[in-house]
Amino acid sequence: xxxxxxxxxxxxxxxxxxxxxxxxxxxIRCYDSRLCMVSISLFGSWxxxxxAAGFQSxxxxxxxxxxxxxxxxxxxxxxxxxxxxxxxxxxxxxxxxRHFGSRHAALIAAGITPKRRPRxxxxxxxxxxxxxxxAHHEQGLPLVNVKKCDVTLVNAARKTFGGxxxxxxxxxxxxxxxxxxxxxxxxxxxxxxxxxxxxxFGLSQSEAIFYRSILSRFGGLNNAxxxxxxxxxxxxxxxxxxxxxxxxxxxxxxxxxxxAWKDDKQLFNAASNHFxxxxxxxxxxxxxxxxxxxxxxxxxxxxxxxxxxxxxxxxVDLSLVGAxxxxxxxxxIAVEAAGLxxxxxxxxxxxxxxxxxxxxxxxxRLGTSGFGxxxxxxxxxxxxxxxxEAVAAAGLESRMPPPLTKRTWSEExxxxxxxxxxxxxxxxxxxREDWGMYSFAKKHFGSWxxxVLAAGCKAAQRSWTRDxxxxxxxxxxxxNQPLTCVVNKEDSPSHSGQPASHAGSKHPVLxxxxx
Length: 515
Fold this sequence. Notes:
By secondary structure, this protein is an all-alpha fold. Among the domains are: 8-52; 64-109, no CATH class; 126-170; 297-337, no CATH class; 349-399; 411-454, no CATH class; 462-515, no CATH class. Helices cover 55% and strands 0% of the residues. The protein has helices at 8-20, 28-31, 33-43, 46-52, 64-80, 90-100, 103-109, 126-138, 151-161, 164-170, 183-196, 203-206, 208-218, 221-227, 240-253, 260-263, 265-275, 278-284, 297-307, 318-328, 331-337, 349-361, 374-384, 387-393, 411-423, 435-445, 448-454, 466-478, 493-496.
């Protein structure tokens, strides 16, 4: 078990303990990694921890002289083996890098001629970059995907000019500020392409500049095709910029922005995802929307009488549904308050009152909540607070049976009930039929058996111990009875209350009555 607090003394004591047990200290990381990490934290290294504990590390320190000696020996072995020997030691390589910076420098310091020359990186000048780009162009090579064939040139262009396009502009092979086509020019171009039967879904790869102008003017290819009157099934990939452009385009056409949730659900959902809500997206687009009047109960009722014709609230304006919920506590409650007919099978206060009266006339009992129907009872509780209040609203409170009072049992009452139960010839297996007595007996005494013993009655179940169980197993084996988990009722003491062979006697060892 690891000590609660590590100190230098604890580390030294643990190292000495491992050494006394015969554990190799060089492989301490394999069986006590915690000790190794703490040693490095407290002493700076595992070697320093071993020296503090009075031990010397088997591994020697790498010095410049040792590295040079090892390199010379490695070189002589490679010459004798025709260059087939190659040392692969990670610690040796790290020591070379730590002392010399590179293997090439270490070989030169050892007087060994390296077989490979160090790789020298070329330093490009702006004139060399321009000359290389012009040479590519004169050879007829494309200047679009140059990175696949000459990545060094592209990296040099980015380093010297800040980008590949700027380098092409400096070489005179690209326009610095290409003029972006207008919205009308883009629409005419798309319509002519559509008339010629060309595909419009690969513009991002074939004509990147034209596709970027579409994104800048319309926010997306879908919006551009819609403006050009071209049907499309292309899925829209939304981002913040495309959402803003689509909102501005919708506002420019004169469409109502408040009905976007119904007219353009993709735009509405994208605005909610990227901006957290439709209002935030419209505000980010810089579009001024006419402020609506504040919803009141009178305005909600007037709007319902004007627009509602029995349809579901999913087909009604969301702002009206929200206002009805805020002002009346529910949409259909507002519809009912407006004096309109509810859709078929919709619950209301009037319908619940009518159903209660009809069920009572048919002879159903008012004491049963909802007359046994869970949906009826739930809606009565929803609209009136409880079933009794719903019956009172129907004018039948006087016909409602009085509420049942729960009986509370005391400890004395439980004990008296148990005594009378057994005196009247009741069996222990039938005690649960009187659930009040049984449950309060367990509540006051912890179990039914404890309650029966506290009442001075004899418990039906036995108290099993380890010795009794062992003795019973031995008896079953002596009588050649099966010892499997399945036991017959006629020979099971747990069912009969006492074993068959010891009925009326005492246990030979324990002296327990009934054995």
